[in-house]
Amino acid sequence: MILVSHIRQFVFCPRILYFYTFCDIKPVYPEYVSSGSQYHNKQNELFKNRKFIKFKLPIIKAYSNLYLQDSSMQGVADLVLECQNEIIVAEFKNQNKPILNKGTKMQLIAYSKLASKHFNKPFFKIMLICSNNLKFKIFDINSDDLAQFNSTIDKINKMLNQELFPQSCASIAACMQCEFKNYCDDRE
């Protein structure tokens, strides 16, 4: 079963998922991981009193840290907004502007697929929320995004089934922030 958080990591660099899955290594996490955890904890505390009115969406109910699972994936979504005719999954990011990268998009599509099954409602959008005053941006999901997601899942399953050490597509800058950089022979 694929952890949804591993989808984002796989897009960043497929070797991260390989190291987590097949190697008995205790990674040393960069400092930003700790600050991100603190940010998420604060958002969870603030969630109790939020109404999300500024989103201007027909929200029926908001769910924080919702565990979602099907036969192939599992994970905990930061925020799921159940609206009248759709669900919208949101991710809290400890950044100044809601900038969506490919890994986060794939992660949010995975949560959206799981939430869609859970609530029996379609999804058409995903959302990034950043800063404590809920700066946000809603992104539409199209058929190309879904095809890219399916391709990513196929690549993950192929790597997991074949247990082959994957090529790295990461940049040197990405490698410098990786928790497994000391175990990967491609960078100095």
Automatic annotation (TrEMBL):
Pfam families for the chain: Cas_Cas4 (PF01930)
Necessary cofactors: Mg(2+); Mn(2+); iron-sulfur cluster
EC number per UniProt: 3.1.12.1
Cofactor note: Mg(2+) or Mn(2+) required for ssDNA cleavage activity.
UniProt keyword list: Antiviral defense, Exonuclease, Hydrolase, Iron, Iron-sulfur, Manganese, Metal-binding, Nuclease
Record Gene3D superfamilies: 3.90.320.10
Biological processes per GO annotation: defense response to virus
Described function: CRISPR (clustered regularly interspaced short palindromic repeat) is an adaptive immune system that provides protection against mobile genetic elements (viruses, transposable elements and conjugative plasmids). CRISPR clusters contain sequences complementary to antecedent mobile elements and target invading nucleic acids. CRISPR clusters are transcribed and processed into CRISPR RNA (crRNA).
Family, as annotated: Belongs to the CRISPR-associated exonuclease Cas4 family.
Name of protein: CRISPR-associated exonuclease Cas4
Organism: Campylobacter devanensis
